Amino acid sequence: MSASPHVVVGPLLRYVDRDSATVWVETDRECEVEVVAGERTEREATWEVHGHHYAVVVVRGLEPDTETAYQVNLDGERAWPEPGSPNPPSVVRTLGDPERLRLAFGSCRRAAPLDPTSLRQVGADALVALAERMMVGDRQSWPDAMLLVGDQVYADDPSPALTQRLERLHDHDGRRSDDDEVRAEIVDFEEYTWLYQESWRTPAVRWLLSTVPTAMILDDHDLRDDWNSSWTWRQETSAKPWFRDRVIGAFSSYWVYQHLGNLSPTELGDDVLYRQVREAPDAATRERLLADFAVRTDTEPDSSRWSFSRDFGRTRLVVVDSRCPRQPEPSRRAMVDAKEWAWVVEATDADVDHLLIGTSLPFLLLHGVHHLEGWDEAVAEGAWGAWGKRLGEKLRLAVDLEHWAAFRRSFDAMVALVQSIAGRERPPASIVWLSGDVHCSYVARARVGGVDPARTAVHQLTMSPFRNPLNVPIRVVNRLLERPVLSRSLAWLARRAGVVEPPISWAVDDGPWFSNGVMTVDVRGRRLVAEVEHAKVVGGAQVLERTLTTTLTQPLPSQVVPPA
Fold first, then answer.
1. N or C, fewer C-beta in 10 Å, the chain?
2. Which string of DSSP letters, residue by residue, matches 388-417?
3. What is the mean pLDDT of residues 510-539?
């Protein structure tokens, strides 16, 4: 161990408003973390969990609409920026003009090397390309914030390097034979820390996360593929001998690495668990607190909330957890439980120019997939008898039929919520869902019954992946499902199963694209523009190339093509 403490992961700039910021850090030992931003200096002691040391430093008293370089000191010695770093200084850019915002978003980033072989296999890393452009580009084009919409890590499918590390560990500790199913998967807190180190220590990405405030929400691979997708999955997987340890590892680490940074300084101060963790007398007590919290969150989802909201002047971002609070039981399926939905309704009740709703799973899918999911849910709930129930549940799990369209009560409730919001005396100029998950990107323009598109434009923006492209056969299936003949056939099947569509129609105006990339929403007053960029390797460098720039807040054409 070196003589002085050092930063293991981070620093991550997480929350920034007009006059405050939070900086998250993992260190290699107990120490005092000091953040120096201009004339402001704030300190926080680390707290230990499972041999790892963390701190969230709140910096207050910053000037609005300013850019301030900052450094991180550990026990009084500078630890960040690292000596000799070629990167620009990390900065805090506080919010200024309430009518301006650039928010970049996307999902699904697989940690992989950046050597020529990996670049050929999984493509350029969109976050690396974004960071490298920012380092040399015009600051006016920088995102003011980023939203990572799920699958920040892949616990069920780690990289080859981590798989080998897991094999060595389990050979050494004699993991039980009944755990062979997850022998090559991440299970406990320590193993989850490997995922975050591997993903967030890439030099360019590390600088990016230290400079752009980033919000995050989990999705299935943060725990395991198809998490809470069906009642069958829930019953079978929760009975596995390894599942409890997986839940504790997943939720404890998610709370530490991702969730805490989603909270504002005020919310951090009010968070009971955070206060208990900081005030606990030792690491063992903290570990018990987090383990109890994790198990309770899994078995009683309404006991906690991962969903959150952020205000960027006249734009509100509401991020909905569409995994943990699910109700997968047949006959009462819901994407979120009643308590969570009440929070969503309250959080979206705001006088804003733009309402952005983050949900890891797209609300509006390609039409063929939408109709297939509606048919499957109806059949799984008995529309075609007992044999149909069995078939529907099997298909739901086998083909990943688990998006909003597969939870029709929640789908219909969301449409009704949009109608209510748009029906206000002064509605937002746009209501936009920001999503990932499906490993393709597209822009869908919607028409909602009773909503004047000239007053409130409604869109689905989907960006996935940052770096984890679909294989060719699945791309072909996606394109086939969007063909009119097949889409109409699936719509007919859904109607035969009793599916009644709510008053919404949409057209996928642009896409789908299947390359790694990032999407940005650019707000200027009541105007909103979407910028789609895809990552490529050009001359050995990873770059972003603009695929599309489209204004979303213009009136719709008089006729929007309805779902087939």
1. N
2. HHHHHHHHHHHTT--SGGGSHHHHHHHHHH
3. 97
Pairwise CA distance, residues 527 & 504, whole Å: 23
What are the backbone angles phi and psi of residue 382, rounded to the nearest 5°? 105, 5
Q: Exposure of 314 by Cβ count < 10 A (0-12 exposed, 13-18 middle, 19+ buried)?
A: buried
DSSP 255: I
The domain segmentation of the chain, as residue ranges, is: 1-96, 97-551
CATH hierarchy code of domain 97-551: 3.60.21.70
pLDDT of residue 198: 97
Q: Which residues pair with 545 in a beta bridge?
A: 534
Whole-prediction pTM value? Answer: 0.95
List b or e across 452-469, with b for residues whose CB sees 16 or more CB atoms inside 10 angstroms.
ebebbbbbbbbbbbbbbb
Integer-rounded Cα radius of gyration of the chain: 23
Nearest Cα neighbor of 10 from 29, 28, 23, 1 is: 23
Peptide bond into 512 cis (omega under 30): yes
Q: Which two tokens stand for residue 208?
A: 């990016």
Q: Which of 385-399, 412-426, 448-462 has the lowest mean pLDDT?
A: 385-399
Residue 102 above 60 pLDDT? yes
Question: What span, in angstroms and rounded, lies between the C-alpha atoms of 396 and 393?
Answer: 5
How many CB atoms lie under 10 A from the CB of residue 160? 10
First to last CA, the chain: 63
Shared fold status for 1-96 and 97-551: no
φ, ψ dihedrals at 252, nearest 5°: -60, -45
- Tokens 């969230």 sit on residue: 56
Region 398-417: what's the mean pLDDT?
95
DSSP conformation letters of 263-327: S-HHHHHH-HHHHHHHH-SSHHHHHHHHHHHHHHHHH-GGG----EEEEETTEEEEEE--STT-B
Task: Please tell us whether the domain made up of 1-96 is placed in CATH 2.60.40.380.
Answer: yes
pLDDT at residue 96 tops 60: yes
3-state secondary structure of 513: strand
Q: Which residues contact 474 (CB under 8 A, 6 or more apart)?
A: 439
Percent over 90 (pLDDT), the chain: 85
Give the tokens for residue 421: 């919001």
Q: What pLDDT is recorded for position 34?
A: 99
On the question of pLDDT at 564 being above 50, the answer is no
200 token code pair: 């967030």
Contacts of 472 (CB under 8 A, 6+ apart): none
Query: How many Å apart are CA 534 and CA 511, to the nearest integer?
Result: 12
- Residue of 67, 56, 65, 66 lying closest to 33 (CA atoms): 56
